[in-house]
Amino acid sequence: MSLDALHVAKGMLEARGVSKMFGQVRALNDVDLDLGPGVTGLLGPNGSGKSTLMKLFAGQLLPETGQVRLLGADPFREPKALRALGLCPEQDKFYEDLTGFEFVEALTRLHGFSARDARTHAAKAIERVGMTRDGVKRLEAMSRGMRQRIKIAQAIAHDPQVVLLDEPLNGADPVARADLIALVKVLGDEGRCVVVSSHVLHEVEAMTHRVVFIRFGRLRAFGDVLRLRRALEDRPYRIRVEVDRPREVAARLMQLPHVRATQLVDGELLELTTTDLDAAAFDVPAAATALGTVVRRFTSPDADLESLYRYLIQQR
C-alpha cells in the first residue's frame, strides 16, 4: 500500500503541482495536497520546505509552477481571500510600545472591522489564549510565552476559517503549552482548517493524528498516523510486555504467524516483534491468561508519530 494513497479531506487549502525555487535551490517540488476542516500537523526536518508551503498558502510567495488555493481563491492575487486566513508566524515582529490588547485590536481593524467590533473580537481572542489579565502589558515587557499567546490571539481574532500556526508553542511554559494545545484542538473542532508546523512531535500528536510529512521539498506522506504506520508493511512493530513467567509466554507467542521474534529484556520484561499490532494486542493477553498470569504493561515504541517520523526521514 502506497503512503501517498492515503489522502486527507478536500476543500479549504489546496496545492496542485506546486514547485518553488530560491535561486538554484528547489524548496518545493511538485506538491499536491488538499486540506479540509480539522487540525493537520506539518512535519519535516529543517529546510524541508514547511515554511515555504506555509508562505505560499498565506499569499506571501508565488509558486514557480502549479496553483495554490485558499477557499478556492488565489491568496497571492486575490487579497480579499486573506480575510479568511489567520497566520501565526514563527518569527516575532511586534509594535513593542503597544499593549497586547492594542496590538490585537489594531491588526483586527486591518481586516475591515469597525473600532468597536475590533475591540470586542480582540478581547475575545485574548481571553481564549488566557491573556485577559496580562494583555494590558506593553509587548516589550512581556515574556516570550506571553508574546506567543498574543501572536496566536491576533491570528484568530477575526474568526478566520483557515489558521496557519508556525511553531505556535515556542517559548511557552508547560501550563501554557497544555492550554494552547487544547485551544488548537477546539479550533479544529469548530470546523476550521488548522495547519500546525512544529518540531515537537509529541505536542503535534496531542493536537491531531492527521499529519503531512515533507522532505527535500517533496510530499512524503499524508493522512492519519495509525493508517500511515500500518501501511509500512515491511517495518514490523516492537512490543514490550511486562508479565509473570515471560519465557513461557514467549514460547507460546512464537507459535503465532505474526510474531517474528521474542527477547527477554530484563527480569519480567519481554520484547516481541510482530507484523500485526492489532493481533498482538489480542494474542498477548490471551497467551498470558492461558498460562494463568496477567499482563501488567503493554507498550509499543514503534506505534507512535515519532517512530513514523524517524522512518520517513531516513528514506531517500
Describe this structure in words.
The protein is built from ten helices and 13 strands. The protein is of the alpha/beta class and 316 residues long. The protein has two domains: 3-230, Rossmann fold (3-Layer(aba) Sandwich), CATH 3.40.50.300; 234-314, Alpha-Beta Plaits (2-Layer Sandwich), CATH 3.30.70. A six-stranded mixed sheet has the order 5-6-7-3-8-9, sandwiched between helices.
Observed structural traits:
alpha/beta, 316 residues, single chain, Rossmann fold, six-stranded mixed beta sheet, 27% strand, Alpha-Beta Plaits, 13 strands, four-stranded antiparallel beta sheet
Count of discrete domains: 2
Helix run count = 10
Number of strand segments: 13
Helix content: 25-40%
What is the CA-based Rg, rounded? Answer: 23 Å
Strand content: 25-35%
CATH architecture annotation of the largest domain: 3-Layer(aba) Sandwich
CATH superfamily of the largest domain: P-loop containing nucleotide triphosphate hydrolases
What distance lies between the first and last C-alpha atoms, to the nearest angstrom? 18 Å
Rounded mean pLDDT score:
88
Based on secondary structure, the structural category is alpha/beta
CATH-derived topology of the largest domain: Rossmann fold
CATH class of the largest domain: Alpha Beta
Q: What sequence of helices (H) and strands (E) makes up the elements?
A: EEEHEEHHHEHEHEEHEHEEHEH
Strand order of the largest sheet: 5-6-7-3-8-9
Categorize the overall geometry. Answer: elongated
**What's the story with the biggest beta sheet?**
6 strands, mixed
* Poorly predicted tracts of residues: 1-9
